[in-house]
Amino acid sequence: MTSALDIAQNAALFGLHIFFSSRIVAQSGEAVGSLEMYSCVSRSPSDQECELIERAVCLAAIAWDVKDARNTNSVVVEDWPVQGNVLKWPISLN
What we know:
Strand content: 15-25%
Number of strands: 2
Order of helices and strands: HEEH
Radius of gyration: 17 Å
Helix content: 25-40%
Number of helices: 2
Distance between the termini: 37 Å
């Protein structure tokens, strides 16, 4: 398994800078992964970017919990019934 340090060092070889890093924590409180984002320039995320990243981390935690609850190797479970309309891609996430 590749360590976070190895990934960061490889990213630096391509001129990428760590932009954001967060642990992904399951509902049980167990750390199940991490989300790391890189940027071509050294900077911090804006407030709006932080909100979007927080959503992504929450979605990843939910996906883990669903996978764990279903005890499968995949988050996509084909036997789940689909209800309602398919949502369209939002014009804006705000």
